[in-house]
Amino acid sequence: MKHPGSPLRVVVVAHDRLWPPCGGGSIRIHWVIRLLSARGHRVTVVAPLLHQEGLAEAFPNVRFLQTGRFSRFVRFKEFVYLIHMIRTFFRLLSIPADVFYAQSAVVGIPTVLAARLRNIPVVFDMIDLITGLSKNPLVCRYGQFFEKWVVRYADFTIVTAANLVSFAKNAGAPHVELVRHGVDLTRFYPRPVQKKPWIVYMGGIEVFDGVFLIPEAASMLSKEFPDLHFLFIGEGKMLSLLQESIQALGLSSR
To answer: How many angstroms separate the CA atoms of 26 and 28, rounded?
Structure first.
């Protein structure tokens, strides 16, 4: 047994492309990796990587194991994810580890399976209820059962919103902690921050992310709250259309 406070061998498992970063999920897990490494833990990352240029400079002293050169923005992504899950499971059977950290149910399933075989604790970061958003009717209908299974058998579950605390507890999670999904605005505005209210969106800029609801809502809110500003942090195929929508509504300065 490890002495309390001693460095741990932590295996971080990502469900989507980790490098180069894209969207709020990858930004979140980047901070997890950096903080674990900064605190002296030995970190191994199992994740899809489109390439590795600049990776060593961004994450010194971190070991990376490739599971595929893909992103979720591909056709037949469920089939790609299945290959990713199988590769992840076999990777986790032999990696020296004291704890597994899995991001989302896609990698949570193989991580929990490998952890139970090896008697290794699992921290599950449920960044979203992703299966219910799938366009695949089978995944949308039955994926939630696997998602709840991961929550039930993970040793510790992290959620990003208060309503997910109830979801995790109702699914049988033994331990739940709320760690919100957000951004520190002072990192983007190091000058003295003006006292302006901000609404921040961080994530993918895709149709299914729902970001196109925000400009219309912003237009209505701006009439009642003239000091309100909006910040988008993310990337995706619909970014240019989002910018055009904002411009058409006369909200570019906001």
So the answer is: 5
